[in-house]
Predict the 3D structure of the following.
Amino acid sequence: MTQSNNPLLSVSISASYAGNKPVLRHLILEIREREIHGLAGGSGSGKSTLVLAIMGLLPPTCKLTGKVSFNGVDLLSVSESKLRRIRGREIALILQSPTAALNPMLRIGTQLREAWRAHKPRQDENEEIRQTLRCVSLPDEEAFLRRYPSEISVGQGHRLLIAMAVLSPWLHHCGRTDQRVRRNYTKGDPGPAAGM
Ligand SMILES: Nc1ncnc2c1ncn2[C@@H]1O[C@H](COP(=O)(O)OP(=O)(O)OP(=O)(O)O)[C@@H](O)[C@H]1O
Ligand SMILES: [Mg+2]
């Protein structure tokens, strides 16, 4: 990725779910490298719809028009296979609920390693995983990694989802962050990122 003044993400869209009034009307948004944005709005105002539109994850019942350009790629017309490569590697989605996002049957270390291997299959993983855990104020010991999602707190679960997402992508969307993570984002700097 090169440093430039061009937006990393440029969005100009409208969206409506079948049979309902439009949720997003001519929404325009630009995010440049290393910018961090917050998006505030009432419940049901369309925040998740915007993020799902950017990720190409809206259900077919949602009519989306306009343009979403990420790093020069038009995400609304790109092939599904290319979009799949961008998702996770270049754009990450940090879901709001750890209980819904984490697999209750797998140890958290297993889930972290799976996320890491999806991005960088051939590189040494342990040190980078431990570094990322420290960056989100989680213990980096093996005993912690051997726990199941039900054996960690909700706050630790949120930070674990963030750790999984920051293992490499350039752009992060998150439903919630906490103060420790925001502080470490500026201090530890896990990579070029913009959050929403
Ligand atoms: N799959 C769907 N089918 C139909 N309507 C939907 C669907 N998903 C969301 N909506 C509606 O679209 C509107 C925007 O929803 P959205 O989830 O984007 O809001 P939000 O701003 O993220 O809300 P919250 O803060 O509660 O998470 C709401 O009126 C919601 O009921
Ligand atoms: Mg939402």
Observations:
- The domain at 9-187 is CATH 3.40.50.300 (Rossmann fold).
- The chain has one domain: 9-187.
- The pocket of adenosine-5'-triphosphate (ligand 1) is lined by residues 17, 20, 23, 41, 43-49, 59, 61 (CB under 6 Å).
- The first helix runs from residue 47 to 55.
